[in-house]
Amino acid sequence: MVGQDRAVAELSAAATDPTAMTHAWLFTGPPGSGRSVAARAFAAALQCPYNGCGQCQACRTVMAGTHSDVREVVPEGLSISVSEMRALVQIAARRPSSGRWQIVVIADADRLTEGASNALLKAVEEPSERTVFLLCAPSDHPDDVPVTIRSRCRLVPLRTPPPDAIADVLASRDGIDPETAAWAASVCGGHVGRARRLARDDDARRRREQVLRIPLSLRGFGEVFAAADDLIGSAEAEAVDMTGSRNQAEREALATAMGAGGTGKGVAAAQRGAKAAERELERKQKSRATRTQRDALDRALVDLAGFYRDVLAVRVGASVAATHPDRAADAQRAASSWTPESTLIRLEAVLGCREALESNVKPRIAVEAMLTVLYRGA
Q1: Which long-range contacts (CB under 8 A, 24 or more apart) does 138-141 make?
Q2: Helix, strand, coil % (nearest 5) of the chain?
Q3: Which of 61, 102, 113, 311 is deepest in the core (most CB within 10 A)?
Q4: DSSP assignment, residue 325?
Q5: Which CATH superfamily includes the segment(s) 5-157?
Q6: Rg for the chain (alpha carbons), in Å?
C-alpha cells in the first residue's frame, strides 16, 4: 500500500486485536489508491498466524488468489449479478476449512445490481461467526454503495498517493530507473498501476500522447471525426489485446470439456448440450469486451479532463500542481487562446462524456458529441 500510513495502522490494529475487529469493511478511494490491494492484504493478515508476516503460506496464497477460505469477486462485465452474489453468500456462510476466517472480497462493490445488493445485505445483516466481508468502492455515496450496506460496514478511506511515494515504489520495488519512475509518477494522476504501465509499456505511452494531442489538433469537423475514430479504434484495439488470448483459451477449454475431438456414444449428446454453454460464454466475453473498451476510453477521458484542468489553472493563475507537467507548453498555449468560460465548457463536456458512457450511450455517439464541444468551445 503506497502512501496509506493511516489505513495501514488501522488495519494492522484490527488484525492483531480481536476487539478492534468487525465483520464488514468498506474500502473507499479514487482509482489507483489501492482499494483492492488493501482489502487483499488485510485478508492475508487476518488469515496469517502472525497477523500479516507476508512470508507464510497463508499470506502467499491469499495474495496469489489461491487461498481456500478467501474468495475475491472481480467483475469482468458491466455488473455483478444476483446469481453470482447468491452463490458467493452461500459459500461465505460455511465455516473456514483451513484459515481463521471465511473472507469475501468484492473488488468493485459499486457494480452490484440491485438484486445483488439485496442478496449481500441479507448476509451482512446476519453474518456467520467467522465470516468477513471486504467491499471496495470509489466512495460511500449512495450511488456507489447502498446506504443499508454502508451503515453496516466499517469505513476505511484511502487517499491518492503522492507522486514521490509512487516514484519510490516504482524505483525500489519494480526496478524502474529513477528518472522514468519520477516522470510516470508525475503524470499518472495518483494511480500506481497506471504509473507502472506508463513506465514499462511503449503502447501505453503512445496512447497517452495520442489523447493529449487532441485538444490543440481540432481545427475543423474533419479533425473531430478523425479524433473520434482514433479514440474508439484505440480503445477497441486495447480491449482485443487484453481479452483476445483469454477468450480463445476459454473457447478451447469449453470445446474440450464438451467432447471436441472425442469419439464414442456420449460425444454427440455432449456436443448438443454445448450450445447453451457456448451462448453463455459468448455473452460473458461480450460483456467483458464492452467493459474493457469502456475502461480504456475512460482512461483517455481522464487524461483529457486533466489537460483542461491544467489549462484552466494556468488561465486563472492558480498555484496548483499540474496533472500533466510534461504538457505545460501546450497548456500555456491553450490558455492564451481560450477564455476560462470556454475551457470550463470543454472540461464539462469531457466529464459529461464519462457519464454518458456509464449510462450505456453508444461510445461513438458520446465521443463525437464531446469532441464537437471541444472543437467549438461552446
Answers
A1: 138/28, 138/29, 138/30, 138/31, 138/110, 139/28, 140/26, 140/28
A2: 65, 5, 30
A3: 311
A4: G
A5: P-loop containing nucleotide triphosphate hydrolases (3.40.50.300)
A6: 23
Q: What are the cell numbers at 161?
A: 498517493
Rounded to 5 degrees, φ, ψ at 126 are -130, 70
Distance separating the N- and C-terminal Cα atoms of the chain: 42
What pLDDT score does 31 carry?
Answer: 80
Distance CA 55, CA 44 (A): 10
C-alpha distance from residue 289 to each of 157, 238, 253, 283 (Å): 30, 10, 19, 10
Residue 20 or 334, more confident = 334
pLDDT at residue 274 in the model: 65
- The pLDDT of residue 238 is 80
Mean pLDDT of the chain: 87
Average pLDDT on 172-200 reads: 91
Q: Cell 487483499 belongs to which residue?
A: 40
Rounded to whole angstroms, the Cα distance separating 295 from 75 reads 13
Q: In this predicted model, what pLDDT tens digit does every residue of 163-184 receive, in sequence order?
A: 998 999 999 988 999 999 999 9
Q: Is the pLDDT of residue 155 over 70?
A: yes
What kind of architecture, by CATH, is found in domain 221-258+284-376? Answer: Up-down Bundle (1.20)
> Can you give the pLDDT at residue 261?
55
The Cα 133–Cα 120 span in angstroms is 9
| DSSP code per residue over 231-296 | HHHHHHHHHHHHHHHHHHHHHHHHHHHTTTT--SHHHHHHHHHHHHHHHHHHHHHHHHHHHHHHHH
pLDDT band at 228 (very low <50, low <70, confident <90, very high): very high
Can 5-157 and 221-258+284-376 be said to share one CATH topology? no
Q: How many CA atoms lie within 13 A of 318 on its CB side?
A: 14
Q: Which residue has the cell 476560462?
A: 340
